[in-house]
Design a protein that fits this description.
Number of domains: 1
Strand content: under 5%
Largest sheet: none
Number of strands: 0
Structural class: mainly alpha
Helix content: over 70%
Shape: rod-shaped
């Protein structure tokens, strides 16, 4: 389960990074094409500013998504630590149970010997 959680979080981060790479490539291409077209038609500063602001808003949203993913990653890491601690506790309980069963068997044998004498 720990590996599955870690793999899922890693996959989400990889997908986010790939999406950001595509977004930045698109942004660069769009601005370049838009500026070339504007130079031919005459620049419309207000439209360029609105496009740039839209790109900044998308980047801000991406940063929020990255922050959320990091928070989830930390939560999952904490959960994996708790699972590992619980697993360790189960191992200890199993060990104690085996020892108690052994002690019970020894006590039963001693009791049987005392009854026979």
């Amino acid at each position: 389960m720990e590996n599955h959680i870690l793999r899922s979080t890693t996959d989400m981060c990889d997908l986010l990074n790939k999406a950001l790479e595509h977004y930045h490539a698109f942004k660069l291409q769009y601005i370049t094409n838009n500026l070339v077209a504007r130079q031919e038609d005459g620049p419309d500063d207000e439209e360029i500013y609105s496009v740039v602001n839209a790109f900044h808003e998308v980047e801000r949203l991406w940063k929020n998504v990255e922050k959320h993913i990091e928070e989830e990653k930390e939560k999952k890491h904490g959960m994996m630590k708790r699972i590992a601690q619980f697993n360790h506790l189960l191992v200890v309980v199993r060990y104690v149970k085996e020892n108690l069963n052994t002690m019970r068997d020894i006590m039963q044998n001693l009791e049987d010997r005392v009854k026979c004498h």
